[in-house]
Amino acid sequence: MNYPIVQIKTPDNLWLHALHLRVPNSKTIFLNIHGTASNFYEEYFIEVLTEKLAHQGISMLSTNNRGTGVYDAWQGNGAAVEKFSDCLIDIDSWIEFALEQGYEKIILSGHSLGTEKITYYMIRGKYAGKVSALVLLAPATSSGSEPLLVQDYEKKIEYARNLVREDKGKVFLDRNAYGNIMPKSAESYVDFSDLNPEFDDALPFHKKHLPSFRKIKIPILAVIGDQEEYTVIPITEALDLIRKENSNAKTVQILDCDHDFQDNEEKLSEILIQFLGENNLCHHS
Q: What domains are defined for the chain?
């Protein structure tokens, strides 16, 4: 049998793992980038999408990246220490893997923080031209969110900046510094803030314009729920902005749905397959 767990080594010597479930004779792959501190298997919608996409002749590559989990002592990576722009290295590596496997069409998907990473990738990534469609699952914005989530944010970000200036960027801040989600190193904390201009090439909804997103020329699908979302601005305004900024974008909101599409996996699959069919990316098996 073909072992479905695969691994790659990035150019900066980081081992990453993924679930690769290949449909026989498939030339199209759905490549997913997970959200903050998640992994390739945690969200149940991945399991459902894998099954539904297989019936359309589409293979699945659900990937880990250097933001997997909070902290991995073995390699010194994880969401607590990652830097946003390094997502280019990870996505480059996974697309290279897909191309080496003989896939000709790549559907690049991201969930939550992953939506920011793949949008940024389409502007800066080495293989952006190899991507046939973009799927934003629960699109989010990191830039602009921290002041809303963190008490005394300005004081904490200045403390982190001072640590970086003193060459102490790897010192961990406490869990409360990052919206009570997890501890963050000072340099990662600063990197995931408004101080980082790289986020202007992602999804800065709070700025009410998306100049980089506007440049993407392939079909785009954005699907989001109505509970526990991270758009900073109201969800419907974020969806309106996505459509306004890019005529290639289709948006769908699922009601009574949380950030991870729990109990709405079938509905999500239907929306996705309809979108892929409209763009000639389904190949019924």
A: 5-143+199-278 (3.40.50.1820), 145-195 (no CATH)
